[in-house]
Protein backbone atom coordinates (compact mmCIF):
# COMPACT_ATOMS: atom_id res chain seq x y z
CA UNK A 1 0.00 0.00 0.00
CA UNK A 2 1.45 3.38 -0.98
CA UNK A 3 0.89 6.70 0.74
CA UNK A 4 -0.65 8.33 -2.32
CA UNK A 5 -3.52 5.99 -3.11
CA UNK A 6 -6.09 7.29 -5.54
CA UNK A 7 -8.64 8.01 -2.77
CA UNK A 8 -6.12 10.12 -0.87
CA UNK A 9 -5.17 12.02 -4.00
CA UNK A 10 -8.87 12.65 -4.68
CA UNK A 11 -9.48 13.87 -1.09
CA UNK A 12 -6.49 16.22 -1.35
CA UNK A 13 -7.37 17.64 -4.77
CA UNK A 14 -11.12 17.89 -4.16
CA UNK A 15 -11.55 18.00 -0.37
CA UNK A 16 -14.99 17.79 1.14
CA UNK A 17 -16.02 20.69 3.37
CA UNK A 18 -13.41 23.04 1.91
CA UNK A 19 -13.97 26.78 2.05
CA UNK A 20 -14.84 29.51 4.49
CA UNK A 21 -18.00 29.18 6.55
CA UNK A 22 -19.40 32.71 6.74
CA UNK A 23 -21.59 32.16 9.80
CA UNK A 24 -19.11 30.15 11.86
CA UNK A 25 -19.16 30.89 15.56
CA UNK A 26 -15.77 29.31 16.20
CA UNK A 27 -12.62 29.59 14.07
CA UNK A 28 -9.60 27.47 14.98
CA UNK A 29 -6.14 27.53 13.43
CA UNK A 30 -3.18 25.20 13.27
CA UNK A 31 0.20 25.47 11.58
CA UNK A 32 2.91 22.93 10.94
CA UNK A 33 6.20 24.84 11.09
CA UNK A 34 8.11 21.85 9.77
CA UNK A 35 6.52 21.85 6.33
CA UNK A 36 4.52 25.10 6.23
CA UNK A 37 1.00 23.61 6.23
CA UNK A 38 -1.64 26.02 7.57
CA UNK A 39 -5.30 25.21 8.24
CA UNK A 40 -8.21 27.22 9.57
CA UNK A 41 -11.32 25.34 10.73
CA UNK A 42 -14.68 27.11 10.76
CA UNK A 43 -17.33 25.59 13.01
CA UNK A 44 -21.00 26.48 13.36
CA UNK A 45 -22.84 24.95 16.29
CA UNK A 46 -26.56 24.29 16.53
CA UNK A 47 -28.86 26.54 18.57
CA UNK A 48 -28.11 24.58 21.76
CA UNK A 49 -24.36 25.01 21.24
CA UNK A 50 -23.82 21.32 21.94
CA UNK A 51 -23.62 19.96 18.40
CA UNK A 52 -21.61 20.78 15.30
CA UNK A 53 -24.07 21.83 12.66
CA UNK A 54 -21.41 22.37 10.02
CA UNK A 55 -17.63 22.52 9.83
CA UNK A 56 -15.44 23.63 6.94
CA UNK A 57 -11.75 24.29 6.48
CA UNK A 58 -9.48 26.44 4.40
CA UNK A 59 -5.76 26.82 4.07
CA UNK A 60 -2.87 25.32 2.26
CA UNK A 61 -0.93 22.21 2.86
CA UNK A 62 0.55 19.04 1.51
CA UNK A 63 -1.56 16.23 0.16
CA UNK A 64 -1.58 14.44 3.53
CA UNK A 65 -2.79 17.49 5.48
CA UNK A 66 -5.54 18.33 2.98
CA UNK A 67 -6.81 14.75 2.73
CA UNK A 68 -6.75 14.35 6.50
CA UNK A 69 -8.72 17.58 7.01
CA UNK A 70 -11.29 16.47 4.45
CA UNK A 71 -11.73 13.11 6.15
CA UNK A 72 -11.80 14.44 9.71
CA UNK A 73 -14.36 17.13 8.94
CA UNK A 74 -16.51 14.58 7.16
CA UNK A 75 -16.54 12.58 10.38
CA UNK A 76 -17.50 15.43 12.72
CA UNK A 77 -20.47 16.84 10.79
CA UNK A 78 -23.54 16.64 13.04
CA UNK A 79 -21.62 15.29 16.05
CA UNK A 80 -21.86 16.59 19.59
CA UNK A 81 -18.98 18.60 21.02
CA UNK A 82 -18.61 15.93 23.69
CA UNK A 83 -18.03 13.19 21.10
CA UNK A 84 -15.70 15.39 19.04
CA UNK A 85 -13.62 16.17 22.14
CA UNK A 86 -13.01 12.42 22.53
CA UNK A 87 -11.30 12.05 19.13
CA UNK A 88 -7.68 10.99 19.65
CA UNK A 89 -4.53 11.04 17.53
CA UNK A 90 -5.02 7.34 16.90
CA UNK A 91 -8.57 7.98 15.67
CA UNK A 92 -7.30 10.55 13.17
CA UNK A 93 -4.59 8.23 11.91
CA UNK A 94 -7.22 5.51 11.54
CA UNK A 95 -9.49 7.92 9.64
CA UNK A 96 -6.58 8.73 7.33
CA UNK A 97 -6.22 5.01 6.70
CA UNK A 98 -2.81 5.00 5.09
CA UNK A 99 0.65 4.14 6.35
CA UNK A 100 2.61 7.27 7.17
CA UNK A 101 6.27 7.96 7.60
CA UNK A 102 7.18 9.64 10.89
CA UNK A 103 7.61 12.98 9.09
CA UNK A 104 4.08 12.81 7.66
CA UNK A 105 2.27 12.01 10.91
CA UNK A 106 2.32 15.68 11.93
CA UNK A 107 0.76 16.57 8.55
CA UNK A 108 -2.06 14.08 9.08
CA UNK A 109 -2.65 15.36 12.62
CA UNK A 110 -2.75 19.06 11.68
CA UNK A 111 -6.56 19.32 11.42
CA UNK A 112 -6.86 17.49 14.75
CA UNK A 113 -4.41 19.98 16.29
CA UNK A 114 -6.87 22.74 15.38
CA UNK A 115 -9.96 20.77 16.31
CA UNK A 116 -8.73 19.81 19.76
CA UNK A 117 -8.74 23.51 20.66
CA UNK A 118 -12.52 23.48 20.23
CA UNK A 119 -13.55 23.02 23.90
CA UNK A 120 -11.36 25.97 24.91
CA UNK A 121 -12.15 28.01 21.84
CA UNK A 122 -15.92 27.97 22.03
CA UNK A 123 -17.38 31.44 21.97
CA UNK A 124 -20.67 32.04 23.74
CA UNK A 125 -23.49 33.30 21.57
From TrEMBL:
Q: Which GO terms describe its molecular function?
A: iron ion binding; iron-sulfur cluster binding
What GO terms describe the biological role, i.e. biological process, of this protein? iron-sulfur cluster assembly
Pfam families hit by this protein: NifU_N
Q: Which residues form a coiled coil?
A: none
Gene3D superfamilies referenced in this protein's UniProt entry, alphabetically = 3.90.1010.10
What InterPro entries does the annotation carry?
A: NIF_FeS_clus_asmbl_NifU_N
Residue ranges constituting the NIF system FeS cluster assembly NifU N-terminal domain according to the UniProt record: 4-116
PANTHER family linked:
IRON-SULFUR CLUSTER ASSEMBLY ENZYME NIFU HOMOLOG (PTHR10093)
Which named protein is this? NIF system FeS cluster assembly NifU N-terminal domain-containing protein
Q: Which organism was this protein described from?
A: Terrybacteria sp. (strain RIFCSPHIGHO2_01_FULL_58_15)
